[in-house]
């Protein structure tokens, strides 16, 4: 990722913003600094998880608990629920889903393999 200058000791915690900086660097290197027109940030992880949970009917209270938001908070719905553009420009759509239904290309490859 990034080398520390000579003589600098590493701390036991990430500095504020380090996770976000590293995630953005990796997203840029992967060629996907934006997903559906939004810049990838560390909040993208919270948004993705909350959006997925909401899509399958997980209650707001359960999403608040999972996201470590205060009881009664509407953050999961107002800030972290981002279904707009879902799937229209998602680079992760090419990744097979294990433990659930596979994408069509993976299912086809498995069927072809089974025929041989």
Give your account of this protein's structure.
The protein has a domain at 18-88. It has helices spanning 18-29, 43-55, 60-67, 75-78, 104-115, and strands spanning 34-35, 38-39. It is mostly helical. It is extended and about 60 Å long. The longest helix has 13 residues, at 43-55. Strands 1-2 form a two-stranded antiparallel ribbon. It contains five helices and two strands. 42% of the residues lie in helices and 3% in strands.
Strand content: under 5%
Structural class: mainly alpha
- Count, helices: 5
Oligomerization status of the protein chains: single chain
**Low-pLDDT windows of residues:** none
The number of distinct β-strands equals 2
**Dominant shape:** extended
Order of helices and strands: HEEHHHH
The share of residues in helices is 40-55%
Strand order of the largest sheet: 1-2
Rg value: 19 Å
Give the biggest beta sheet: 2 strands, antiparallel
The chain-level mean pLDDT equals 75
End-to-end Cα distance, whole Å, is 43 Å
Descriptive tags:
mainly alpha, 3% strand, extended
Question: What secondary-structure arrangement, pairings included, does this model have?
Answer:
Blueprint: H1 18-29, E1 34-35, E2 38-39, H2 43-55, H3 60-67, H4 75-78, H5 104-115
Antiparallel strand pairs: 1-2
